[in-house]
């Protein structure tokens, strides 16, 4: 089997400035490694650096790109806007499931997440890109959703049947 390459992009200006430690990117990276993925992890400031990191990951052949942070409604939250240009197909059902999981866990503000999910073209073929919130709870909920679909999405991107 060829190398399964993934990227985790933590989108946080304060973490990138060293004001606090990234508590979500390492969780996502460990989750992917447990599932056999080689992981490239990056910590970037909110804004255009997020789009640059996504583009770099796709150019390097990552088949999965998971971002964490920057999905809310604060003025600096721009992860969806930086992600959208890369998506050739948006997966609104995944987006809805991610928000619904948070609401079901008792987090009413999960509906404010603007995170996207979809398919992008990359150097190694089509890739799955998903934006998770920047909170530990939001990431845990998001990984729970992804746990049920990641392998199926990848099989589909590789031409597998339903």
In order across it, which strands form the biggest sheet?
2-1-3-6-5-4
The quaternary structure here is single chain
By DSSP (H or I, 4+ residues per run), the number of helices equals: 7
Order of helices and strands: EHHEHEHEHEEHH
Query: What name does CATH use for the topology?
Result: Molybdenum Cofactor Biosythetic Enzyme, Chain A
The overall average pLDDT, rounded, is: 96
**Low-pLDDT segments, ≥5 res:** none
Largest sheet: 6 strands, mixed
> What structural category characterises the helix and strand content?
alpha/beta
Q: How many domain units?
A: 1
Q: Ends: how far apart?
A: 21 Å
CATH superfamily: MoaB/Mog-like domain
Helix content: 25-40%
Write up what this structure looks like:
With about 160 residues, the protein is α/β, with parallel strands linked by helices. The chain has a single domain (about 5-155), classed as Molybdenum Cofactor Biosythetic Enzyme, Chain A (3-Layer(aba) Sandwich). Helices cover about 40% and strands about 25% of the residues. It has 7 helices and 6 strands. It has helices spanning about 15, 25-35, 50-60, 80-85, 90-105, 135-145, 150-155, and strands spanning about 5-10, 40-45, 65-70, 85-90, 115-120, 125-130. Strands 2-1-3-6-5-4 form a 6-stranded mixed beta sheet, sandwiched between helices. Strand 5 and strand 6 form a beta hairpin. Helix 5 (about 90-105) packs across helix 6. The longest helix has 13 residues, at about 90-105. The chain starts with a strand and ends in a 5-residue tail after the last helix.
